[in-house]
Write a structure and sequence with these properties.
- This protein is mostly beta strands.
- The protein is built from four helices and twelve strands, in the order βββββαβββαβββαβα.
- The radius of gyration is 17 Å and the shape is globular.
- The two termini are about 30 Å apart.
């Protein structure tokens, strides 16, 4: 479980696909203390919850390895990750941690596409198009997770919604690199999903 508050930006140092193409082993360089990364730990990478299978230090830089399976490659932007790709990272939530964003599972629901970007003096506004089957879970003033970042929805109409990004978020995440046409990982709010399911059952 996560909160959508990014704690580091990692970079893919290497990527090794298997012979069958069903699994990719990624090595991600980061600034975390390697002593705090245990094998089996969960780290959200651009919103995708991945399991650490190894970690170490090379040339003074911490790294950890994760595997991305076929389902992850199919449903997320992980299929487009390459060496040098920068990723928003978040460690799994611990009991007693501050809940600064909202409850995030790290289970990406689909891919949203940037429709427009409007740079303002003190923030940036992005409009995104969500998959139609997910649009019903996105509402103005509600929460959404994009590339692992907890954000508040500004407006929502049909399958297009907008978010406003403050300078701090642009500085400490990869969102400053978003442009029209960029594809990003989308996780809808768990509460919205459960509310829709309850209404459906009634």
């Amino acid at each position: 479980m996560f909160t959508g508050i990014v704690t580091d930006i990692g970079e893919i140092a290497s990527l090794q696909p298997t012979a069958q193409g069903q699994l990719h082993r990624l090595r991600i360089a980061c600034s975390y203390d390697q002593k705090t990364i245990a094998d089996g730990a969960s780290i959200a990478c651009n919103g995708v919850c991945l399991t650490v299978v190894a970690s170490g230090v090379e040339r003074g830089k911490t790294w950890f390895d994760v595997d991305t399976a076929a389902e992850t490659l199919r449903l997320t932007t992980a299929k487009d990750w390459r060496e040098g790709t920068r990723l928003n990272l978040e460690r799994a939530l611990k009991i007693g941690d501050e809940l600064g964003g909202h409850i995030v599972a790290g289970h990406v629901d689909g891919i949203a596409t940037i429709v427009s970007r409007d740079d303002m003096p003190d923030m940036a506004k992005f409009e995104l198009r969500a998959p139609r089957d997910l649009a019903k879970f996105i509402a103005a003033k509600g929460s959404v997770t994009l590339d692992g970042v907890s954000l508040t929805v500004n407006t929502a109409m049909r399958d297009v919604f907008s978010v406003l990004i403050i300078p701090h978020t642009l500085q400490v995440t990869t969102l400053s690199g978003w442009n029209t046409g960029s594809q990003v990982n989308l996780e809808v709010d768990l509460m919205a999903r459960y509310a829709a399911r309850l209404a459906e059952m009634r």
